[in-house]
């Protein structure tokens, strides 16, 4: 088991999980801004674990462990974590809870379908669950700092509903190339660094 864990791809996946767990703990002490940044970082980690898995896996090495680990990590990082971020803001009414349940159930359904059915090498069949790791932080940081609390809730709830629908919609989305992922990841890390600096300075919340 130890050999499976220390494959580079699995290490990247586990780093994403560490970011998610740390972020959820930060939500409990009202550090939601920092948690939102860690949500994005966990999404970036998820974008590269598959690439490393293909590059470092030996011919006689099973990929089942990595697939199962990646799915469980996705549920935590892109399913549960965004909901914890939203709930930490006090959005815990009955209708919020229904949306959260719908979001997580659709995410799990999407992951299960992806694992069972072979997907095209060039296209995703349905929106990847990891998209929430980028959309939710963007919506939070924008709406939290330039609009009222009501609009923040509306923005987050609409995002959860939209993602829930797109997870289970039979739509083909072209997979990004390694170059695309690298460029966007660099941009993402730069933006995350800037946001963390602004959070420490108290310029944004």
Description:
The protein is mostly helical and 205 residues long. 76% of the residues lie in helices and 3% in strands. It has eight helices and two strands, in the order αααααβααβα. Strands 1-2 form a two-stranded antiparallel ribbon. Helix 3 runs antiparallel to helix 6, helix 3 packs antiparallel against helix 8 and helix 5 (94-116) runs parallel beside helix 7. It is globular and about 45 Å long.
Question: Which characteristics define this entry?
Answer:
2 strands; globular; two-stranded antiparallel sheet; 76% helix; mainly alpha; 205 residues
Helix content percent band: over 70%
Mean pLDDT over all positions: 83
- How far the N terminus sits from the C terminus, by CA atoms, comes to 42 Å
The major β-sheet equals: 2 strands, antiparallel
Low-confidence sequence ranges: none
- Approximate shape: globular
What is the β-strand count?
2
The DSSP helix count reads: 8
| SS class | mainly alpha
| Main β-sheet, spatial strand arrangement | 1-2
Q: How large is the radius of gyration?
A: 17 Å
Strand content: under 5%
List SSEs in N-to-C order: HHHHHEHHEH
